[in-house]
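Researcher: We're teaching a course module on how sequence relates to structure. For the next exercise, students receive a sequence and then see the predicted structure as tokens, so they can try to spot secondary structure elements on their own. Here is the exercise chain.
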Amino acid sequence: MGEPTFTITELSREFNVTPRAIRHYEAQGLIVPERVGQSRIYSKRDRTRLKLTLRGKRLGLSLVEIKELIDMYDTAPDESSQLVKVLAVLAKRRQALMQQREDIEAVLGELDAFERQCRDILAAADAGRAPRRRA
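Model: And here is the predicted structure for the students to work with:
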């Protein structure tokens, strides 16, 4: 009995992604299924690479970054060079997220100030006129 294999439908269901997404990752060289006629047969290795790809996407990494990191498993003689690279990529991503957080905080501050200004204008306008009567 050989290594377990998977169909695109099985992987799609397991990881809650579309077959189209899996084919896209294949086109990017992240996974390389065997072909039997028109069918794709995914190995345990392909399944692991798909899992790592999806993890990288959740972290906000680009497909190029993900492919580079995953490919290091195949070429690195030990894990240390790969781990150094992972740490560098994660540091870069963390810095980008921190910058985004700062930008979001700045925009929220501007929204708060503008909202206060609008409420103050409305309050001043309401104070200067008599209440409206309904017909």
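Model: If you want an answer key for the exercise: Residues 76-135 form one domain. The chain has a mean pLDDT of 90.
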